[in-house]
């Protein structure tokens, strides 16, 4: 394996993005990054910060998904040059959720009911939801640009961000390939062994990001 990796577990929060951005900043631009993603998703702001930092890194970025990287985890994966999954690993849709409500479903309410029958709170939430969907779609399309033709990037961003599926819909490796993502199923045994250190029960006091907190330079990289 290459030098730098971030085994990310639990929900992604702003502390995770702060640590990942710091680690990338401390890494030479010519050093490839290996990122192990294991997350149900999390804060959009944090996920997008990480994704944009990955996308801007000059060297190859490989994201390993040994089990699942849903929602914000998938948004991060979209920024990678390569996504390595097991055959039964999953990604997921990136459609925005407003509290417990899917933004796309709120828009359906506004479209299908007479406005006089819709309360103000629902109308406000639907307006926020419309903006959230447009923002996430644009972010995904930007991350996918240069990874695939522009029309395919737009179509894939549309499918992932606009409520095509339920938010917990599992996108297995084979389907991810069909969607045009740069997916490989050559999962490293070392990554699977690493995951034994991150059992499923939540450990709220343990950090969700792990990395070696020292500068990484090109001459340090191992082939």
Please give a structural write-up.
This protein has 223 residues and is α/β, with parallel strands linked by helices. The protein folds into 2 domains: 1-92 and 170-214, 2-enoyl-CoA Hydratase, Chain A, domain 1, CATH 3.90.226; 95-165, no CATH class. Helix content is 41%, strand content 11%. It has helices at residues 14-25, 44-56, 72-78, 103-112, 120-144, 150-161, 173-178, 189-195, and strands spanning 33-36, 61-65, 68-69, 82-85, 90-91, 97-98, 101-102, 171-172, 183-184. The strands form 3 sheets. The chain has a 4-stranded parallel sheet. A 3-stranded mixed sheet has the order 3-5-8. Helix 4 crosses helix 5 (120-144). The radius of gyration is 18 Å and the shape is elongated. It starts with 13 loop residues before the first helix and ends in a 28-residue tail after the last helix. Mean pLDDT is 88; it is low at 1-5.
């Amino acid at each position: 394996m290459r030098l730098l990796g971030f085994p990310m577990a639990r929900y992604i929060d702003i502390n995770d993005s702060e640590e990942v951005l710091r680690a990338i900043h401390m890494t030479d631009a010519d050093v490839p990054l290996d990122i192990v993603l294991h997350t149900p998703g999390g804060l959009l702001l944090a996920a997008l910060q990480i994704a944009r930092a990955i996308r801007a890194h000059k060297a190859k970025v490989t994201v390993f998904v040994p089990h699942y990287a849903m929602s914000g985890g998938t948004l991060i994966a979209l920024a990678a040059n390569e996504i390595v999954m097991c055959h039964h690993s999953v990604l997921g849709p990136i459609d925005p959720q407003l509290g417990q409500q899917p933004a796309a479903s709120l828009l359906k309410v506004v479209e299908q009911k007479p406005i006089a029958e819709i309360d103000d709170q629902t109308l406000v939430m639907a307006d926020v939801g419309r903006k959230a969907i447009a923002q996430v779609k644009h972010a995904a399309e930007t991350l996918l640009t240069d990874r695939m033709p522009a029309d395919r990037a737009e179509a894939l961003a549309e499918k992932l961000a606009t409520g095509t599926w339920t938010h917990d819909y599992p996108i297995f490796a084979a389907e991810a390939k069909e969607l045009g993502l740069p997916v490989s199923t050559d999962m490293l045994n070392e990554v699977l062994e690493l995951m034994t250190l991150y059992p499923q029960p939540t450990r709220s006091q343990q950090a969700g990001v792990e990395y070696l907190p020292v500068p990484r330079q090109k001459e340090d990289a191992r082939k």
